[in-house]
Write a structure and sequence with these properties.
By secondary structure, the chain is of the alpha/beta class. The chain folds into two domains: about 1-120, 3-Layer(aba) Sandwich (Rossmann fold), CATH 3.40.50.2300; about 125-215, Orthogonal Bundle (Arc Repressor Mutant, subunit A), CATH 1.10.10. It is built from eight helices and eleven strands. The protein has helices at about 10-20, 35-40, 60-70, 85-90, 105-120, 150-165, 170-180, 185-200, and strands at about 1-5, 25-30, 45-50, 75-80, 95-100, 125-130, 130-135, 140-145, 145-150, 205-210, 215. The strands form three sheets. It has a five-stranded parallel beta sheet with strand order 2-1-3-4-5, sandwiched between helices. A four-stranded antiparallel beta sheet has the order 6-7-8-9, with helices on one face. A hairpin with a 4-residue loop joins strand 7 and strand 8.
């Protein structure tokens, strides 16, 4: 899963990146509103964590522009502003959730996971696909109740397919959400990850639709 952190305080941004990466996200960071507006409007993110007090363009203006331009990524607002009127303004502008500073990182991660589930139309924290279960809170995989050891990359791929299992996911989309900006996004590498997963969870779970992409069969 791919997350964008929009925060001008580098210490807070680094803490957020570490926490989100430990929860299975690939994190990108920008420090000002102008850059955030461009990135959020041209890239596809599973989650955006947005501070309101930004240089060059404030976070509320960025959010309003995103929504007016059709950006549908889930947005979690972070701000030191505590007035309830400002929280209402943020929600009315299109935010999906709101967390005032200071906050506990555990709460932010829980809210982030819930936003990602809801955006995919999946309320449950455990996604069941036939005999395969993907626990989004524990970041674990099991087949018929037996835990299966997967790498972080394998987990991210399987959890993304599970959250979007009502459609075929193109390879370009999977590559975009699996790899960071500095990684090589190679279709052969994607095939290799899928091949390893098939050996671990069974050959009939991840389906290949030639020319279209990948989806999960036997959805529960």
């Amino acid at each position: 899963m791919r997350a964008l952190v929009v925060e001008d305080d580098r210490r807070i941004a680094a803490d957020l990146a570490r926490a989100l990466e430990s929860a299975g996200f690939r994190v990108e960071h920008v420090e000002d509103g102008e850059t955030a507006w461009f990135r959020g409007g041209t890239e596809n993110y599973d989650l955006i964590v947005l501070d309101l007090g930004l240089p060059r363009l404030d976070g509320l203006t960025v959010l309003k522009r995103w929504r007016a331009e059709g950006c549908e990524s889930p947005v979690l607002i972070l701000t030191a502003r505590g007035a309830w009127t400002e929280r209402v303004e943020g929600i009315d502008a299109g935010a999906d959730d709101y967390l005032p500073k200071p906050f506990r990182m555990e709460e932010l991660i829980a809210r982030a996971r819930a936003l990602v589930r809801r955006s995919g139309g999946r309320a449950a924290s455990v996604q069941q696909v036939g005999d395969v279960s993907v626990d989004l809170n524990r970041m674990s995989v099991a087949v018929a109740g037996v835990p299966v050891a997967v790498t972080p990359l394998e987990y991210r791929l399987l959890s993304y397919l599970a959250l979007h299992r009502d459609r075929t996911v193109p390879p370009s989309e999977l590559l975009e959400h699996l790899y960071g900006d500095d990684d090589s996004r190679d279709a052969n590498a994607l095939e290799a990850v899928i091949a390893r997963l098939r050996r671990k969870i069974g050959p009939g779970v991840i389906h290949t639709r030639r020319g279209f992409g990948y989806d999960l069969g036997a959805a529960g």
